[in-house]
Predict the 3D structure of the following.
Amino acid sequence: MLEVILLGLFELLLSTKMNKTMTWEDAVKWLKEQPSQQELVKQCYYDDPLESAAERFSSSDEWLAVKDLLSGFIPGKVLDLGAGRGISSYAFAKLGCEVIALEPDQSSIVGAAAIKSLVETTRLPISVVTEYGETLPFADNYFDIVYGRAVLHHAIDLAKFCSESARVLRKGGLFIATREHVISRRQDLQLFLNSHPLHRLYGGENAYLLKEYMEAIKAAGLDINRVVGPLASAVNYAPMTCQEFKLMLTSLLAERIGSKVAELLASNRLVQELLGYYLSRKSDNPGRLFSFQAVKI
């Protein structure tokens, strides 16, 4: 589903005269102006009003799956890295967390100004800091949770980014990075960049080998206790919903064991997890999404 969405946007972008001199804000603004792309805008939570988009994210299958990973750590002090429009910060704050949204982009559409407007509207406990993840202006051992949604692959220095995240995290605190682009071989990076529609606009995308993410996280003094594959959780396979994932599994199983048994098995959570893990292991698509959970040693 996600590949179909990206392909449609890619074809649309090729028909324009845009180039990499655009900013991220310009690219998103253009996307929002396209009548044919409003469903994609909603799936990316770029729609307005921002409060409605943030509320929808906080009840999405993706966020509900993230909440499962956060069990035992919330409420607490949260650093939301590369917070964008603030949808994750909003979701954390609704759970009673004290949130600092780190976002270097000043944009009123996809950056710090957008988060500030969200705070003004909702009055939730979210502070906004316009700084990069490699130079965090916070004391050591301050946060209970350091979280980033699709942010590590944008790091200027991945090792430094992870090191700084670990420094400001308290001992026993949770580091969680979701929806990170992964490649299997270095030569796959260009294949991924060529296929990514927004990279052709502003040139800001990237991806790392799975081991590079894991080595950077471990070297920072964080103990990885969970690596989530692309089809192992709604954290990664969103915007496909859990119901749509179940239907996909039903279809795959029905080819081998019949529709009735397939539907029964696909409704079982353990079967879903096992098949999601199996399908994730088979996936080799450049830029596929992984998530990581680690605890500070």
Remarks:
- The radius of gyration is 19 Å.
- The first strand starts at residue 77 and ends at 81.
